[in-house]
Amino acid sequence: MSRSLATPKASSDLLSVSFNQDGSCVSIGTRKGYSIANAEPFGKVYSRDDGPCSIVEMLFCTSLVALVGTADSQPSSSPRKLKIVNTKRQSTICELVFPTTVLGVKLNRRRLVVILEEEIYIYDISNMKLLHTIETSPNPHAICALSPSSDPCYLAYPSPVPSPNSPFSQGASQHSPGDVLIFDLVTLSVTNIIQAHKTPISSLALNSTGTMLATASDKGTVIRVFSVPGAQKLFQFRRGSYPARIYNISFNAVSSLLCVSSDTETVHVFKLAQGTKGAGASSNKGLVPPTSPSLDGSSDTGSPTGNGRGAGGYEAFIDDKKKSGGLSGSIRKRSLALGRNMAGSVGGYLPKPMAEMWEPSRDFAFLKLPTPGVSSVVAVSSTTPQVMVVTSEGYFYSYNIDLENGGECTMMKRNFAATSQSTLFSRATIPPMRRGHRRWEIKSLLSLIFVFT
C-alpha cells in the first residue's frame, strides 16, 4: 500500500509512509527514525529514533518491521541495508546488505520481497532463505504488488521489455510495456501475462485474497481490474480525461471498492460488482453509472470513448460556469452534449468488448483533498465506511463514504503529525540502483512476532 510520494509540497522531515496490509496501521519514516500509528482511531503506538528511514514496512499488526536507511546517514543506516526488527523486543532479527539501493520492500506471512532497480529478491520469511531472483527491466519506482494472502501467494510486476539492441528484442516484439507478469511465489514460476495497457505501468495493487489485480498506466486515465491468475478483464474504470500520475491504488478488505489517488486533488472510489470473487465475473457485470467529477475523454489505448450520459459533479459544474456566457461557450456545450448522446447511442449497438471502450464506468464516489498537487496513499477501513488518506504535507484524513448513494465523501477527521516525534507522510523517491546481493546475517528467528496491543 505504499508509494513514492516526493513532491514540492512534501514536508522536509518526512521520508516514507505506508499502510500495512489491511489498512489498520500506518508506518512512518522520518529523518530521525520511524514510528507506527493506529489508523482507527489515529494515534501513535510506537516510535524510535534510530536514524533516517527511507522505507518502513509492517507485517500486518505484528511487531515485525522492515527498515531501510538513507544515503546521508551514518554507515550503520545505509540505503543498501535492509533490517528486519522486532519492535516488541527492540531487537534486530536480520540484516540483508545489497551493493545498491533498496527501492521497495513487500511482506506477507510467507514471503519477503525486496525490489531493486533491475532485480527482485524473494525470501522465505520463516528462515530468511533466498529462494529466487527475478531479473526485470529498470524499475526505479519499485512498481510491484504482493498479495497480502499467503495462499494463493502472487507477485505482480511490469513485464521486462528488451531494448532495441537486445538480441532478444525481435522475439519479444509482441510484448508491450503495459504488460504485467503474474509470478507464483510458491512454485516460483510465471503463471500468466496480463496485457493491461499499451503504455508503461505506473501502479499495481492486488486484493486481500490475491484474486484480483488493479492496474494503471503512466497516462493515468483508465484503471483496469483483472482476475488472478486467469488474466480476465473484470472491470474498466474512467479516472478522468487528462493524464495524471497515479500515486496509489487500494482495494478494501472485501474487494467491493477500489480507491485511486493521483497528482490531482481528487481521490476516486470505484465500486466493484458485489459477490465478485475475481475469477469468474463478467467484464461488465456490476459496473456503476458515472458519477465522476471528471470530464469525458479518450482511453489510454487511444480507443474512442464516451460516457453515455452527461458528466456530473463539482468539476463539471465549474467547467460549465466558465464556458457559459458567450456564443463560443454555447456552441462548445452543445457540441459536447451532442458528442455524448452519439457515444451513448452508438455504444448501445456495439458488442460488449467494443461498447466497453465507448462507455468506461465512472467513479461511484470521490473526495477532494484540501490542497491540490500533494501526493498521497489511500486505504479503506475494514470496520467503518471510511476512506483514509495520508498526504505528503503531513496530514491524515478520514472521509465518510455513502455506500448506497456514493457521491462526494465527507471529511470526518484530520490529524497532523508532522513533528519529529510522530511524522506523516511522504514516501521518498529513492535513488536508482542496479543489481546484486551478498551477505545476510541471521541474529534470531522470525518467529518472534508479537501483536500490538
Q: Can you walk me through this structure?
A:
The chain is mainly β and 453 residues long. The protein has one domain: YVTN repeat-like/Quinoprotein amine dehydrogenase (Methylamine Dehydrogenase, Chain H, 7 Propeller), CATH 2.130.10. Helix content is 9%, strand content 36%. The chain has three helices and 30 strands. The strands form seven sheets. Strands 5-6-7-8-30 form a five-stranded antiparallel sheet, with no helix packed on it. Strands 21-22-23-24-28 form a five-stranded mixed sheet, with no helix packed on it. Helix 2 packs antiparallel against helix 3. The radius of gyration is 22 Å and the shape is globular. It starts with 13 loop residues before the first strand and ends in an 11-residue tail after the last strand. The N terminus and C terminus are likely disordered.
> What's the story with the biggest beta sheet?
5 strands, antiparallel
Distance between the termini: 22 Å
**Proportion of β residues?**
35-45%
The average pLDDT value, as a whole number, equals 77
**CATH homology-level superfamily:** YVTN repeat-like/Quinoprotein amine dehydrogenase
CATH class: Mainly Beta
Domain count: the total is 1
Strand adjacency order, main sheet: 5-6-7-8-30
Please identify, by name, the CATH architecture: 7 Propeller
Unreliable stretches covering 5 or more consecutive residues? 1-6, 167-173, 275-299, 301-348, 419-453
Main location: membrane
InterPro entries: PROPPIN, WD40/YVTN_repeat-like_dom_sf, WD40_repeat_dom_sf, WD40_rpt
Region (Disordered): 277-315
Subcellular location: Endosome membrane; Preautophagosomal structure membrane; Vacuole membrane
